[in-house]
Design brief:
This protein is α+β, with helices and mostly antiparallel strands. It contains 6 helices and 13 strands. The strands form 3 sheets. The chain has a 6-stranded antiparallel beta barrel with strand order 1-9-12-11-10-13. Strands 5-4-3-7 form a 4-stranded antiparallel sheet, with no helix packed on it. A hairpin with a 6-residue loop joins strand 11 and strand 12. The chain starts with a helix and ends with a helix. The relative contact order is 0.18.
């Protein structure tokens, strides 16, 4: 009787085992290889087309390839801005008169001092340049490793920390600084704006975004 019970239990267990074995596997089990292959293909494709960005923080100084002439105060007094005409930038107020500060029609002022600033004779009021296209650049001092990143970059973008506007840049020139481990790097700027030109001769904190080649392209050196 005990042997019969054991045989029945073995048969029941065997029947349950047969049911489990006979069931179709779940979707993930049935299509696991296909899903893994598809995920690997997507990662492979993304690594071929999507660049990765690196952000470098620097202090830079803006310059221009154009010629800027300083416009100086004709007298001692208070500078008063006047933008009502293109032929004048304002007046110098003295104790008994207003002296106009005139400019020619083919130039425009940049980097003007603040309104109601006290000036002495020959102090610089602003800089003037012709109305030609702007050609600006900036300089940075960087280590060799950052210079290599700039040289190998697919795209370089400049972002001012106090302004969300971006500017495309390109490597113009570089030279080794004697007595230092750094390089003096000159970066040209595409598509300059009037706002950017107002920053000439000043130092600003910026972010330089370097778009590296996609990882796969860099590995196979395309």
């Amino acid at each position: 009787m005990e042997q019969l019970s054991n045989n029945t239990e073995i048969e029941l267990k065997s029947e349950k085992a047969r049911k489990i074995i006979g069931k179709m596997p779940f979707f993930l089990l049935r299509n696991g290889i296909l899903i893994i292959t598809l995920v690997l293909f997507i990662l492979f494709f993304m690594s071929y087309i999507i660049p990765y960005n690196e952000i470098l923080n620097y202090k830079i100084t803006f310059y221009s390839q154009d010629t800027y002439e300083p416009l100086r105060s004709p007298s001692r007094g208070v500078f008063m801005n006047d933008s009502s005409t293109n032929l004048s930038v304002g007046f110098i107020g003295t104790h008994d008169s207003l002296i106009p500060i005139k400019i020619s029609s083919n130039v425009y002022p940049v980097n003007m001092i603040k309104n109601y600033t006290f000036v002495n004779k020959n102090d610089i009021i602003c800089y003037v340049k012709s109305n030609n296209d702007m050609k600006m650049y900036y300089t940075i001092s960087c280590k060799e490793k950052d210079l290599k990143k700039i040289q190998e970059a697919g795209k370089i973008t400049l972002v001012l920390k106090n302004n969300s506007t971006t500017y495309d840049c390109y490597l113009q020139n570089f030279s080794f600084k004697n007595g230092s481990e750094e390089y003096n790097v000159i970066m040209g700027i595409n598509g300059c704006s009037k706002y950017l030109e107002s920053l000439i001769f000043k130092e600003y904190e910026v972010k330089i975004i370097i778009a590296h080649k996609p990882i796969l392209k860099k590995i196979i050196n395309i």
